[in-house]
């Protein structure tokens, strides 16, 4: 009897430690103030729903292109506020800068919300046909990925003066601390801090990097049951966790980058779901 009690206690401790490392909440589909819009695929048209996710100061921002708004939630799932979006743009990504200002990537450039007014701050790189994703560092440099008119993926930095510097590679990430990570075709990730090369990391060719911190790269890799989130340290060591993942909103590799984010505390926040609703999950690597 005593052995059974000990086993139950151990099992409860394991469950509690797992819950402390992973939390989630759900958002219903609809047009009510605290819901997120979704339109199921119709013939050749893919499903449409939230476009991107952003995190800042323990708040989760979701760009809802169906209802033309950005909804904000706490990490506990409490609805906090909604921000209206102009209906004249096509939306591709969302970012919150160091000061907590909301920025969006659109077909007409990058816009920032000043109090209640959306202002154009940067043009897209020349010859862009589709903007993919972007992020902004502490120096207000915009790391951006776009598809060019020749069908090539172009990555680079938009400086404060609006000039664009194209960089070699095919994926680019940045964080608020001034770190920029560039993935090259030979699966090496070069990490720059304030423009200077600080280190390089080699990853598996099947991995998709989606976040960078001062000590690690965060990547995704497909598994038989979903995805594996890998935290690759700069010394080559790695932590990983497999997750079940189903989403009607993943069209290509860039979709993962827009729905998986790393917050200031290096927690991974991601969105999945579709017609039946959306799930936000927060994972902390111990």
Observed structural traits:
single chain; 286 residues; mainly beta; four-stranded antiparallel sheet; 2 helices; 24 strands; globular; disordered N terminus
Shape: globular
Number of strands: 24
Report the major sheet.
4 strands, antiparallel
Strands in their spatial order, largest beta sheet:
1-24-23-22
Mean pLDDT comes to: 89
InterPro entries: 6-blade_b-propeller_TolB-like (IPR011042)
Protein name: 6-bladed beta-propeller protein
Organism: Capillibacterium thermochitinicola
Keywords: Signal
Report on the architecture of this protein.
This is 6-bladed beta-propeller protein. Residues 1-21 form the signal peptide. The chain has helices at residues 2-21, 253-259, and strands at residues 22-27, 50-56, 59-64, 69-74, 79-84, 91-96, 102-106, 109-114, 117-122, 128-136, 142-148, 153-158, 164-167, 171-174, 179-183, 188-193, 196-202, 208-212, 216-222, 226-233, 238-244, 260-262, 268-274, 277-283. The longest helix is centred in the first third of the chain and has 20 residues, at 2-21. The chain has 286 residues and is mainly beta. The chain is built from two helices and 24 strands. It starts with a helix and ends with a strand. The strands form six sheets. A four-stranded antiparallel sheet has the order 1-24-23-22. The chain has a four-stranded antiparallel sheet with strand order 2-3-4-5. Strands 6-7-8-9 form a four-stranded antiparallel sheet, with no helix packed on it.
